[in-house]
Amino acid sequence: MAKSKLRVVEVFDSIQGEGGLMGLPHTFIRLAGCNLRCRWCDTKYALDAPGVEMSVDDVVSKVNCGYVCLTGGEPLLQDVYGLLGGLKGKKVTVETNCTVRDERLDEFVFLYSVSPKLSSSGEGYDVRVLESYLNLDNVRVKFVVCDDDDFLEAVSIVEKYNAFVRGKVVLQPDGMCSMSEYQRRLGWLCGKVMGCEVLVRSDVRVLLQLHKVIWGNKRGV
Q1: In CATH, what class is 6-215?
Q2: pTM above 0.90, yes or no
Q3: What does the pLDDT look like over 9-23, one tens digit per residue?
């Protein structure tokens, strides 16, 4: 097993606030660094942070839950093969921005949460990387939708890859706002989905970020 050090921003226990595993207790491992600079990023403190150097054994020793979420930043910019090997037996979700792929990890990953960045982010994603992930069964695709352009882009992707993504796509609004504005954005997005035949027949879901409803835009939750 690789013994390289990892640059870690934080390790904490909380409920999973997003996606199909929402509400389940998880240990979150947030690694430092990201290759994107999304306008609406809610973890900017992790982008350029040096992090704390930790061994695989030290990180694994802090894991208390059966479910683990490896996140960032972009966690796959670091060599996490040894970490995932050390977490064998845990149900590990890897959250990734769809620009990086490491097929060695597939044997250890319970779920890939792949988040291609739409136009409002000011960034993008790698189509080949997305297609590589879509070949897997244990993948969910999450789009942050902020405006009509984002929505149409998400619809186009769902339509193009419908055979792969049916029932696997989640849409959510940008949550970096007040709670009243967040409710408005959720309502707007629900209305857009309900009015779109492509998304309705593809079983696309609108989900909130539960941790933001409970704690607001705080870190470590």
Answers
A1: alpha beta
A2: yes
A3: 999 999 999 988 999
